Amino acid sequence: MFSNDESNNPSNNPSMQDVIDTCNHQRRTLLKGSIGVATWAAFGGMGLSTGALAKGGQGGSAAEPLIGFTPVSANILPMTDMVSVPVGYSARVFVAWGDAISNGANWDPATAMTEAQQLQSYGAHTDGMHFFPFPTEPARTGNMHGLLVSNSEYNDPGLVHHTTSYVSDAMTAERVDAQLAAHGVNVVEAFRPARNGDWMVKRPSRLARRITGKTPMLMSGPAAGHAMLQTPADPSGMRVLGTLNNCAHGHTPWGTYLTCEENWNGYFGTADAAFVQTPHEKRYGVSKGGFGYRWHEADPRFDVRAGGQTSNETNRFGWVVEIDPFDPKSTPVKRTALGRIKHEGAWVVVDDHNSIAVYMGDDERNEYVYKFVSARPFGNHGDDRSNHYRNHLDDGTLYVARFNADGSGEWLPLVWGQNGLTLENGFADQGEVLIKTRQAADRLGATMMDRPEWGAVHPMTREVYMTMTNNSRRGNTPVSSNQADGTTGAASANPAVDAANPRPDNDYGHIVRWREAGNRVTATTFEWDLFVQAGDKATAKTLGATYTPGEFGGQTVGYEGNINGDDFGAPDGLWFDADGRLWIQTDQAGDAQGDWANIGGNGMMCADVTTGETRRFLTAPPHAEVTGVVTTPDGKSMFVGIQHPGEDWTTSFTQNSTWPDNGANGPTTASASGPAKPRSAVVVITKDDGGVIGS
Ligand code: FEO
Ligand code: CA
Ligand code: CA
Ligand code: CA
Question: 261 in ligand 1 pocket by Cβ < 6 Å?
Fold first, then answer.
């Protein structure tokens, strides 16, 4: 019931330095490879099949292959209940749900979580994350000391309250508050006391912080203060409590963290017998029962018909939230210019002209890919972190993508007054266009995608990759589309296969990539292709008889996929390291059964996008998703999130997993007393010889 995943049940100055490094790195690499940006643009349609961009920077000489490790085996039945990494690497638990992040005691997982305990502890269901080296310390130290900022996407109420009868227990405000506190964002001070020592959580920490479902936040941008954002508790429409379902993330060159609100609709519900979805609620999947959290029974904020009125509280979620991790007193800001969808993440790029773009996906079946282009250039590369309140993410244009069958693409502007985004079609102003981003995109004829999850931007070329995790409705009959008037319910259409989503009942997912015209993030056209269609080379599953493979220029393949290397499916997390290795994290049921018997549980792959090779680097415990990955700037310490080990238990908490308190990846704060329940946790991976991860 509480699975969040439709596939399971129906430098000195951190980010500033990243930009400078990326620019320098790009120039170095391009020089090294004797290939210029103009040349790169010319072969864009070929999908970067040259090896000229393969190598540069910190990983070693051009003669070394980008990927150097021996792959781990698939975690097939009988599954191992641990995180496995290649020979020569170690993976140790860094922080787990309930561990104190500053002052105070660690949670005892054999007890129920309280709001007070949770507010001082690492949140539930860890997800996207970024590592911010300290801005005031020498670059070398940034590899041993920084802020690990991460999302806590959702929670399993049974594990929170230590009960097997949550669905029938009386709902209380205390329970809602404990769960609200389990959500949100974690700011953890991470340090490594010695060069080869274990990473630790610095306690106490002046900078440690929990941001939760109740933290006061501001709205900014064109929709701030809009009538549709006003509530009885906040007539201004400007002051919101909390962020929810923080899935993936982004980070900006001005040193801030972006957290993205994904399946926020699931927390709302109502006992109102007269409840009928408005078209707007239907388009976003706001329903009577939600996902079964039942918060509305004890907290009217989550009742969509509180007092018999249609609530605007739902409109205050579905945004991208900007946070300054180095100022623990700062107020997070919901940036409405980036649209209101089920935001997976927000990937920021600055191009050679200092133009800023943010790439985003709306993760639901048949939803869209978006790009925000800021109206304000990124000053110059001498700017500092004071940029972060210059509101680069408030003024600009939001676009939605159309992927044409010939490999071209268009960014369609979601601008009030243009392309039918007018009052007569239900959009009174730009604020309403943004609050109803999905309906606006429907009207523009955007391409329905197979659940856009994470994006990643190649550090040298700025080619953008995005995972399409799966789509059980693709190719279903009767064929239908999201209607231009915005009346189609969330995930209810049956889109035909198309060039960018070429498989019916897309079980294993694929990765799309695109190249902006002229390598400018402000471009309104792009070229795209499919990097990979994931699959199982040994599967006996075949495409439906009514479908003709090869319909789109021969790019369609069956469920065997076209992976060059180790098989995987349901790609979700995606990240490029500084050398250009593409890290692919997966999110399927994780039980190594059925369609996943050969692929096994979830894992993390490493791909070389120039050769197309994919190698399995990590496997996760049973019923766990792998989500969230980042390294220190030197690439030698990697943080990886392991979410919901043992999910979908029915009889006991530990039915499917006892990780991490089984001690399989080193001691935890609770391993001495034995595992009471599985806990989401972040592991830190190092190479035994101290080298770059993946090399
Ligand atoms: Fe929270 Fe789409 O994954
Ligand atoms: Ca999942
Ligand atoms: Ca995800
Ligand atoms: Ca997913």
Answer: no
Tell how far the Cα of 380 is from the centroid of ligand 1, in angstroms: 34
Ion ligand 2 neighbours (CB, 5 A) are 5, 587, 625
Q: Tens digit of pLDDT for each residue in 310-337? A: 999 999 999 999 999 999 999 999 999 9
pLDDT band at 627 (very low <50, low <70, confident <90, very high): very high
- CB 247 near ligand 1, within 6 Å: yes
pLDDT at 391: 80
- This prediction's pTM: 0.92
Looking at the predicted structure, is the pLDDT value of residue 216 above 90? Answer: yes
In the chain, what are the domain boundaries? 17-88+212-656
Q: Is the CB of 453 under 6 A from ligand 1?
A: yes
Establish whether residue 625 lines the binding site of ligand 1, counting it when its CB lies within 6 angstroms of any ligand atom. no
Q: Are strands 216-220 and 333-335 parallel, antiparallel or unpaired?
A: parallel
For residue 18, the SS3 value is helix
Residue 134 confidence (pLDDT): 85
Q: Check if 362 has its Cβ closer than 6 Å to any atom of ligand 1.
A: no
Phi, psi for 211 (deg, rounded to 5): -110, 130
Classify residue 423 by burial, with Cβ atoms within 10 Å: 0-12, 13-18, 19+: exposed
Q: Is the distance from the beta carbon of residue 364 to the nearest atom of ligand 1 less than 6 Å?
A: no
Question: Which residue type sits at 486?
Answer: G
Q: Which amino acid is at 421?
A: L
Cα 684 from Cα 673, distance rounded (Å): 23
Ligand 1 atom at shortest distance from the alpha carbon of 247: 1
* Atom 1 of ligand 1: nearest residue by CA position: 247
List, in order, residues 6 or more apart from 358 with CB less than 8 Å away: 250, 258, 320, 338, 346, 347, 348, 349, 371, 372, 374, 393
Contact of 530 with 512, CB cutoff 8 Å: yes
Asked if pLDDT for residue 663 goes beyond 50, the answer is yes
Tell me: the pLDDT tens digits for 455-513? 999 999 999 999 999 999 999 999 999 999 999 999 999 999 999 999 999 999 999 99
What gap in Å lies between CA 491 and CA 632, rounded to an integer? 38
Q: How far is the CA of 453 from the centre of ligand 4 (A)?
A: 7
630 closest CA partner among 311, 328, 369, 248: 248
Distance CA 262, CA 284 (A): 11
Cα(625) to ligand 2 centroid in Å equals 5
Q: What is the pLDDT of residues 255-279, one digit of tens each?
A: 899 999 999 999 999 999 999 999 9
Q: Give the pLDDT confidence score for residue 254 in this predicted structure.
A: 87
The structure tokens 């990539």 sit at 513
